[in-house]
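Sharing a chain and its predicted structure for anyone who wants a worked example. Both blocks are below, sequence first, tokens second.
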Amino acid sequence: MLNIAYHPIYQLPLPEGHRFPMEKYDLLPTQLRYEGSCEEEDFFTPEKIPNPLIEAVHCPDYLQRLLTLE
């Protein structure tokens, strides 16, 4: 069994023609299931990481800007 983190909320509105089109991330799980590479049980919805773990690997300034969407 694979462990693939996926949730449809992980889409950002990017400008048309952006080099990382978000549509592909939504289509990828469908394609993997279609071709038989993955089953539904291979996908999971990740949970929020506790702040102490995030704080252990990111500087406080970066974390504050991330949390305030700067």
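Comments welcome. The CA atoms of residues 6 and 45 lie 6 Å apart.
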